């Protein structure tokens, strides 16, 4: 066992409030590509052309055809992987209280985490751009693109596009929880998109220990991660759960 891994186990065992901040990397092993880096979505598509609110308002048909339909196909097939299950296990063991996720795939809830802050919203719902009526994505009739609401308005995923504000409650609660935790587990995020990327800094500024799980170093690794654990989340998190079980039973 590496020293950093052993330190992470000891730190989690002592912690009273642990929060996880997750990003696209935790869902890579569920078959959902990340945004940046090798195989990333933004390598194939220019986000300013297809994922910015101005692009959607100008040409919703193209954004639906190029981005949203593709996302739906990928997310429909995805199931929680061993990393999501690991975080749900940590909650059941009384170690983890809240997950703040930048992901819109709903996989943390499906794995069993009960307190999940969806920082960028949720793809499980579509919302009318005109009247705010919502409907489950699975019930939307896609025979007409863009799909429309009963009022005639255009439906859009209930997650944020670039250029939009973070849902107020999600932002406020994430800031409060980050400031009050004593451990933050940062899993599978490049930590490049604000304001989500500021949560580990808020945690660290308030005395928390930052444990980072990622196969690649990120902008956090050298600057603020106390315990960087290099590797895939689907491998490291189950190992962490196993070690925590041994620790709890010792
Ligand atoms: P990124 O695509 O920027 O970063 C994914 C991170 O996951 C990288 O640091 C990878 O090294 C890491 N990674 C890859 N495979 C992994 C694995 N098996 N286990 C653990 N980590 C792995 O994704 P985010 O940081 O989530 O926003 O991106 C943040 C936001 O940018 C997204 O929420 C999205 C995007 O634009 C919006 O759509 C508003």
TrEMBL record:
Pfam families in UniProt: SIR2
Keywords for this protein: Metal-binding, NAD, Transferase, Zinc
Entry-linked InterPro entries: DHS-like_NAD/FAD-binding_dom (IPR029035), NAD-dep_sirtuin_deacylases (IPR050134), Sirtuin (IPR003000), Sirtuin_cat_small_dom_sf (IPR026591), Ssirtuin_cat_dom (IPR026590)
EC number: 2.3.1.286
Location of the Deacetylase sirtuin-type domain: 1-250
Entry annotated with the keyword Transcription regulation: no
Keyword Zinc (UniProt): yes
Annotated Zn(2+) binding sites: 128, 131, 149, 151
Catalytic residues identified in the record: 120
MF terms (GO), sorted A to Z: histone deacetylase activity, NAD-dependent; metal ion binding; NAD+ binding
NCBIfam families in UniProt: PRK00481.1-3
Record-given protein name: protein acetyllysine N-acetyltransferase
